[in-house]
Amino acid sequence: DAKTTQPPSMDCAEGRAANLPCNHSTISGNEYVYWYRQIHSQGPQYIIHGLKNNETNEMASLIITEDRKSSTLILPHATLRDTAVYYCIVRRSYGQNFVFGPGTRLSVLP
Amino acid sequence: EAQVTQNPRYLITVTGKKLTVTCSQNMNHEYMSWYRQDPGLGLRQIYYSMNVEVTDKGDVPEGYKVSRKEKRNFPLILESPSPNQTSLYFCASSPGWGGERFWDTQYFGPGTRLTVL
């Protein structure tokens, strides 16, 4: 599975959009981009995933560049409850090992 | 309610005393997995199971055993716990093969905080 690079931390004002970048320059054609988040010491929570098209659900939007070498997770109106560590993971649609990197610690500020 | 449950949630034990952390899911998922999380090291996969009677090692399997005798349960066994296994443990499950693709969205349990003295 391809390696990902994320900034270690970011701040965002409450009510504003939070844009979390992820670099995955070695991604291959059959690898999906997944985003999870972990609030404090709770179990990680699935947010969204995509292959090449942009995706949106009730939690967030995922924008994947045309060359698929990077992506951005967008939380459109961040709230204090969105403060968490956000993980970007790249993996094949079928597969075995699931690798979490250090993620981005997002702090939503009042 | 669809969920992954783990028991116990908290456990303090002593070195060498065998223990089992249970994991159960009620979503008929094929894939189950165990992770440990340590400060500065993030989440690391211990073992995973693609289906009943099929298990494989993750990144940090040493000192752990698993079994998958039924689809819903995936216990984590520490035969002789040591202090370096003090950690926060998570179980997860995902649907697995459905139609032509492997559904890989993992659902995590609430975690088990283990302390080995």
Description:
The complex is a heterodimer of chains A (110) and B (117). Chain A is 0% helix and 47% strand. By secondary structure, chain A is mainly β. In chain A, the strands form two sheets. In chain A, strands 1-9-8-3-4 form a five-stranded mixed sheet, with no helix packed on it. In chain A, strands 2-7-6-5 form a four-stranded antiparallel sheet, with no helix packed on it. Chain B is built from no helices and 13 strands. Classes of the chains: A mainly beta (110), B mainly beta (117). The A-B interface holds A 32, 34, 36, 38, 41-46, 49, 87, 91, 93-103 and B 4, 33, 35, 37, 42-45, 48, 50, 56, 58-59, 88, 90, 92, 97, 101-102, 104-111, 113.
Highlighted features:
heterodimer, A: 110 residues, mainly beta, five-stranded mixed β-sheet, four-stranded antiparallel β-sheet, B: 117 residues, seven-stranded mixed β-sheet, 13 strands, globular
List the helices and strands and how they pair.
The complex is a heterodimer of chains A (110) and B (117).
Chain A: E1 9-13, E2 18-23, E3 31-38, E4 45-50, E5 55-56, E6 61-64, E7 70-75, E8 84-92, E9 104-109
Parallel strand pairs in A: 1-9
Antiparallel strand pairs in A: 2-7, 3-4, 3-8, 5-6, 6-7, 8-9
Chain B: E1 4-7, E2 10-13, E3 19-25, E4 31-38, E5 42-51, E6 54-57, E7 65-66, E8 76-78, E9 87-94, E10 96-98, E11 101-103, E12 107-108, E13 112-116
Parallel strand pairs in B: 2-13
Antiparallel strand pairs in B: 1-3, 3-8, 4-5, 4-9, 5-6, 7-8, 9-12, 9-13, 10-11
